[in-house]
Specification:
The protein has 334 residues and is an alpha+beta fold. It has nine helices and nine strands. The chain folds into two domains: 17-182, no CATH class; 203-332, no CATH class.
């Protein structure tokens, strides 16, 4: 009788849907909640990742001037990092990392820009203004000469209602992005300068070539001819290089007398009596203008003939270096 009653109960279908639903619904609810928080986690992850990417790109784009506004790139004309900041304030020591271990420049974010920070740290710390509340991390800059890179590693707290909803066992969501520092304007400037000055330098006479063209004057007996005045020195130069006396005008309208202009367009100037102050303030600026113009002269050679009262012939070492830096060849005649 008991077995027959149990058999009738199992054969009945009333209440099956309610029983099945009560078994499946908790599983569906649990999966729904898991997917919901997984979606929230992925949203937070993408958000942190995008924040890191934007911060890296803006910092790299404005890297050439620490005074730039990270959002607009604007800055005042008198605000800059100096002419040679790439040599002194750009972590150039990273280039020698293969010789000496050198940690890259890093800054914790968010952080207020401080007076004691160097230029590189100040540029990294400025990215704090782009970070939303609740996001922190580390900004790093490395300079490998041809590979200059800004890297941001950011994190944000992920709030889960239960301990079991911590994705990957962590309460923090991490994001990382890097952006390389490129300077198109500087590259165009260097390329244009190289194209301009390489041609000019190639066409100028070298000190060795200038000296090879010169032979000290001698009379018929083989003895050296004595030069006793600037007029004689100028005449000697014209005979020496087969040049001509000519007057030129600089681009600013100043008159410049060339004692001997040879067939190659090289100007030879004779100096018998002089003062270095007069050479610096009067003669040198004119020749610099003509050399930079590059059309009237291909080179300039200064010839010194007389020793001063101290027995020193020619310019001082300081003046001579200034002349050579400007592309002017110095020749001393005994």
């Amino acid at each position: 009788m008991r077995n027959k009653l149990l058999l009738q109960i199992f054969k009945k279908e009333e209440g099956n849907f309610t029983m099945e639903a009560s078994l499946v619904f908790p599983l569906i609810l649990l999966l729904t909640i898991v997917l919901l928080f997984l979606g929230l986690y992925m949203y937070q992850y993408v958000y942190v990742q995008q924040t890191a990417r934007v911060a890296a790109e803006r910092t790299a784009y404005n890297w050439d001037n620490s005074h730039k506004n990270l959002y607009t790139g604007n800055y005042y004309l008198n605000e800059h990092d100096g002419l040679y900041w790439r040599l002194s304030s750009d972590s150039i020591s990273d280039v020698f990392g293969f010789i000496v271990t050198n940690a890259p420049t890093s800054v914790s974010l968010p952080q207020t820009v401080g007076q004691r920070m160097n230029t590189t740290e100040r540029k990294l710390a400025q990215a704090s203004v782009t970070l939303p509340a609740g996001i922190s991390g580390i900004a790093t800059y490395t300079n490998h000469l041809v590979d200059r890179k800004v890297t941001f590693k950011l994190q944000s707290f992920f709030k889960a209602p239960f301990r079991y909803f911590k994705v990957f066992g962590s309460e923090m969501v991490h994001g990382q992005a890097s952006s390389r520092v490129v300077e198109p304007v500087e590259m165009i400037r260097l390329t244009d300068m190289t194209r301009t000055y390489i041609k000019t330098i190639k066409e100028r006479i070298s000190p060795k070539a200038a000296k090879a063209l010169l032979v000290e004057p001698q009379n018929s007996s083989g003895a050296k001819v004595a030069i006793t005045s600037e007029k004689e020195a100028a005449a000697y130069l014209r005979s020496l290089v087969n040049g001509t006396l000519i007057n030129m005008q600089t681009p600013t309208g100043k008159n410049r007398t060339i004692d001997a202009l040879d067939a190659n367009g090289v100007a030879h100037i004779a100096f018998y009596t002089f003062t270095e102050n007069q050479l610096r303030t009067v003669q040198l600026p004119k020749d610099i203008e003509l050399l930079k113009q590059g059309t009237q002269l291909k080179g300039v050679v200064w010839h010194f003939f007389k020793k001063n009262a101290s027995g020193i012939q020619g310019p001082s070492e300081k003046l001579r270096k200034e002349l050579e830096d400007q592309g002017i060849v110095v020749v001393i005649h005994n």
